[in-house]
Amino acid sequence: MDTLIPEICRLLNDTLSPEKAVLASATDGLDRLSRFPHFPLSLLAVATGGDSQGLRLAAAAYLKNFVRSCMDDDPQSLELQRFRNQLAQALLQAEPAVLKVLVEVFRLIVVKNFVKENTWPELVPELTSVIQRSNLIIQDKNAQWSTLNALTVLQTILRPFQYFLNPKVRNESVPVQLEIIAQEILVPLQATFHDFVNKVTLSFQDPFQDQVQSKLEEIILIICKCMYFSVRSYMPSALGPILPSFCHDLFRILDSLSLDGASDDGSLLRLKIAKRGLIIFSALVTRHRKHVDRLIPSVVDCAFKIAKQSGNTCVMQNLDCISERIISLAFDVISYILESGPGWRVVSPHFSSLLDNAIFPALVLNQKDILEWDEDAEEYIRKNLPSDIDEISGWAEDLFTARKSAINLLSVIAMSKGPRIATATTKRKKADKSKGKQKESSIGELLVIPFLSKFPMPYHGDKASSKIVHNYYGVLMAYGGLPDFLRERNSEYTTTLVRNRVLPLYSSCPFVPYLVATANWIIGELASCLPQAMSSDVYDSLIKALTMPDINGINCYPVRASAAGAIIRLLENEYVPPDWLSVLEVVVNQIANGEKNESSFLFHLLGTAVEAGQNIISAHIPMLISSVVGAIVNHIPPIPDPWPQVVVERGFAALAAITKTWEASSAGEALEHDDRKWESAQAVIARTFATLLYQAWAVSVQSIDSADRSTSPPLSCLDDASTLLGLILKSATKKNEIEELKIPELLALWSDLISDWHGWEEMEDLAVFDCIQEAVNLQRRCDSTNFLLTRISSRVSPGVDQSIIEGVSAFVTKGIMAYPSATWRACSCVHELLHVPSFSFQMQCVKQSIITSFTQAAFSHFKDLRNKPTGLWKPLLLVISSCYILCPEIVEQVLDRDEDNGFMIVACGLAHVSSRSFDSGISSVSEIKLAVITLEKFVERLVAFPLEDGNKVLQDCLVSLMEAFLHLKEVEEKEAEESDSEVIDDEYSDEEISDNEDSEDDDQEETQEEFLDRYAKAADELSEVVAGDIEDGVQDLELGPVDEIDVREEVLSLIRRHHQVLLKGQVLSSGLIQQMLDAFPECTPLLQVH
């Protein structure tokens, strides 16, 4: 080991060199050394004893990556026993920077060896001993072990236990390892925790104790995290008795907390402890309430004291991220408690005080909001007016604002109807219970709405800085949290509230944009409970806000953005405008004349409006497309370097939505036009799209300097662009239209793009696969052009000519290896691409090349799955079958080159899939026919050229061939019988859904058993999706010339030629032979010999 250390140090130092050659050489050298068995131990020695911190960190980082790559290998390759023990010892003495990296290495080994396999029994006893003898526990600065390091190791060990290890098990018991840790370490640590809390709370006011208490606070924080990981999902039996003591120590810390200033280095740890304590309370209340029922009043008092700090103007003006998160958690804890029966009795006496002193002060407008509006409007919207327009970004902690949690608590209070106690009598008398609920008044009616009604609405003379405006802002925020409450009221109640307290703001306070923006957001939040009768007033107000200009130097972008978000929410809830055309005209005009940064949400709004309007607005689609394309063209940069742009992407997304609506309307009878008028509009749309795509893909590339010609067109919005290209392809029916629309050029650019595609995303890839299908359909319609085989210079690979089909096939090949549904779609495309184009003699090399690629990809993916039969076997093996029928020699070469006996592996797999006993096996006529023909050729091949150990495979193929042959006859006869009619009756399912909805009891508290059952079912469903059998339905494959083969004659001819070889040795069962005789009497002379 010692001999490797100097060389490792030199190579690690070389990895920091700016010279590429030195860096590459160092990487190769470390790669070479990694094959030595002592390499990880040598790296660990450098990480803990290197000359410089940079070297130690480099060694620790390399060790982390090395261990991660080797975890699935034979444990002996890492000399696991020795390595993990030395790693644990190194962690206990490592400096903080190196400890942070080495902990990740330790976590990988702990999860595998301790958590999953439980093969490290000495870990807990040894760690217990180290903690007991560490410096802060025995109060000896010269102690060998660091308490901080030892508890960091404990935290790493406990972290995996925060989640259920076997989530599919309904009542999973506490893991033995966790029980041991709780008993041996966490329970004894409680005395230390209590002692440290005493010292810290006494020194809170002493500025001279900062250095001392910092270490103690760090220890307290780690112990809190360890406790949280232990109780988040499970409840070790040893922890139940110490919970009261532990929680009371947390109460002392939280009660001494003050948030009246920004957190600095001295108070940051204390704030983190407070945050973790509240998270622990949330976990205990929601998961283990029976263990903390007696503590609920104290938890409420503690959370209430923190929540009331939102009433301090100074606090709210200066809240930093972690302080705001603490107040947010305090509101959340109260919400969780309130949702339980015992908790309701504790919280309800405080309702009025909560509203006055905590909730409402957190909702009112403050100077921090105004400053954020002016300096970062997007951030203001994200925190205060959230919608689905923009994807959430930034720190997750920023999303948990005190205002959001206060609104949520207000909603829970408003829905409260008293303690929910389910007795045996009430369970038996459900009808009586429902009658009682109708007579009950909610706290929303009794307290919340009256409380909010006492704040008057501002008028013209009120300035934005006035108290009446600030308070009414809080009122609006409160209304935005009451949609569940309002849904239980009648429509007149909601109508009155919106007409009297929200809509007047658009005319009475147009110069207070903070209120108008919040009013927009409220309307969006109440979208599901607004009566249709007031839609005219609602849309008039929102359109006014959508076009509101900036006022007196105040940026009104949040007003316009929130108006767009509100309209989107209304449309998504099927709350439609009375006049579609006027809404569309306003949106299109805003896109054309608005600011660049606003086009993004306007495009989103337009796309949503078109999807919601469907057939109602289909007549206006040509006009919309022309306007949107014009706006997009203005935003497309001449050089693709700035791409992707959100504006252009949203524009293409809007066009894709419009395109789908146009195609849906043209398929039905909703459009009132004659065929000639529709064809003319379709042609105009296709030409417009062709011009747009050519500019987006080709012109931007042509503008690049010739020296940089290798730059490919941007991959931005490939899915939506593929939707537009698909419409162009559908529109072309004649050869001259193909040339006029520049289809070969567009397909060449597009195939270049998709051939280099690596960002596999299901929703994005679907449009690409659909477009491939449309290209194939166009080839069918205009076979004489054979444009798919046109060779054009590739921009992805400069200097190389490739045909369109080669670029498309490169994408399909990668799709075969991608996620499960992409594999299904890609495999379906393979059959189309192999059989639809007419490959000339000169193009046979292209055909052979794509067959080789398809076979390699399908076989590689099949090998990955061969040990676990799955629905993906079928499409992968059928791809290889199609390729084999066309070029058997090439396919055999590929199979046997990739793996010995590759041909027999595929033959055995196809026999398995074609068997009637295989779940998700072949089922459609085309699938069965392809399997039968391929199995017939496999049998012929194995009889003519026997392979070593091939007799068993031959027998399996023969049996499956006969079964599939019979299956084909059955399916063909069944389809013939059912071709006249197909009846689908959904009435029963609709009634069942309705009954389920009617029987739901929103007020019934979910029990722990119900939670665990739901959790287990959800985990099971997720695992099924991951398994990949998500599209194992029937596929109608394109078979080309193969479809013309007389399958009956091929199989019977095989039996005639080789029956003496095939039928000896009782290969076929008597039952299978009888089925063959019944189905094909002409086989009687041959099979009776058997």
From TrEMBL:
InterPro entries: ARM-like, ARM-type_fold, Importin-beta_N
Subcellular location: Nucleus
Record key words, sorted: Nucleus, Transport
Keyword DNA damage: no
Gene Ontology MF terms: small GTPase binding
Domain spans labelled Importin N-terminal: 26-93
Positions of region (Disordered): 973-1007
Entry GO terms, CC: nucleus
GO biological process: intracellular protein transport
Chief location of this protein within or outside the cell: nucleus
SMART domains with a match to the protein in the record: IBN_N
Gene3D superfamilies assigned to the protein according to its UniProt record, in alphabetical order: Leucine-rich Repeat Variant
Name this protein carries in UniProt: (wild Malaysian banana) hypothetical protein
Organism from which the protein derives: Musa acuminata subsp. malaccensis (Wild banana)
Lineage: Eukaryota, Viridiplantae, Streptophyta, Embryophyta, Tracheophyta
